[in-house]
Amino acid sequence: MDSGSQLREGTLFRIDKNTKLTYAALFVVNLAIFVAGAEFGELADVFISVPIMIIILATLVYDSEFIHVPPSLLIIVNAAMIVALAARIVGGSTPLLDFAVFVLVGAVLGTIGLIVSYMSLGKKPGFVKEKPLPIVLESICVGIALYVFWITFSYYLNELVNTDFEVNAIDVVVDRMAAVMLGSSAICISFFVGNGPTRKGVEGFLSRNSDMIGIETDEKEAVLALIKGGESFDLEFKSTLSTNLKTGERDKRMEKAVLKTLVAFLNSDGGTLLVGVADDGTVLGTDVENFDNRDKMNLHIINLISSQIGDEFIPFIRYHEVEFGVKDDGTEKLVVRFDCKPTSTPAFYKDGKQEAYFVRSGPSSVEVTGSDLIRYVEHRRVSVKRKYMPARGLSQTQRLPESDDDER
């Protein structure tokens, strides 16, 4: 494997420190649920907590080699279990509370159903000819089937080992099934009508685990779908990597245009850069012909990121080539796709002894300097969720300057 591949393959999706701490905390929570469930005879809590602990341990031990279950899903499951368990322990469980808890359970099972549906299709959300209604119906059915499987398993396990655990009456089961159906339906519908946490979570899960779970991604199709939406706060096009299309010569200004966009995404909320695509969305193909081969181009990209942004930011930038056939001159027609994650550590474009700090403002990358830079960096440092737009760290009288982003 070439050095460029070693550096970029999978680096975006390693578990970061904060996520590891979240998984560790969830393991402790599930261990406590297991102990409390065993003590008070709650069969569901005991047997749900065990596989969750196994999944968390496997994820922490094997990192990117194991399927990553989104922490948000585990948090929702644990929240429902804790509320239900606490209510039963203190004798305060009510039909309404029980129904609400299983609506949450249904939301989780519906999300799992969405993942299973796309796994069965072998595609990621947003593919051409995607049919939302059949996917929603299949996802709801998967969620309900998982619940039915669970209560059936619980019943026969109780019969087999003759435990003192509670087995719910049929009327309770029916009520809970209705709650699960409602939760599954709500989460599946919200998946297609918005771009909220559920959709991002499912898309992230499928992307991170695509090789392991057999999702065959059509990268060309995905890039075309992005291009169709046009440039935006988290999407930008560049026609070339290193070559000035007007002169046909290598031009460092072209490389600067690429690097400053990556820096801006790192300093904002992340984003995607497509190199080899014109402003109007025409796929030109990047200038791979000006390198000895594709591997040399990859090594050049890594060297640029390492020397002019910094090695510490490599884990936040993932890139790969997407094939679009051949150009008129017979050379490969490639689009290089960069996907950046945001970082709270300030990233600078370095040119010799000079350093420049860029952020996103609308569909452009702009430089921030002086007191505006200090305020912006401080705002990012204290903003845990990093959900703001770049201009929000500045007052109305401190608007970001107009972009000089004409280097294509």
Give a description of the structure.
This protein has 408 residues and is an alpha+beta fold. The chain has two domains: 11-213, no CATH class; 219-398, Methyltransferase, Cobalt-precorrin-4 Transmethylase, Domain 2 (2-Layer Sandwich). 54% of the residues lie in helices and 10% in strands. The strands form three sheets. It has a four-stranded mixed sheet with strand order 1-2-4-3, with helices on both faces. A hairpin with a 5-residue loop joins strand 3 (317-326) and strand 4 (332-340). Residues 1-13 and 384-408 have low confidence and may be disordered.
In brief, what are we looking at here?
The protein is 54% helix and 10% strand. With 408 residues, it is of the alpha+beta class. Residues 1-13 and 384-408 have low confidence and may be disordered.
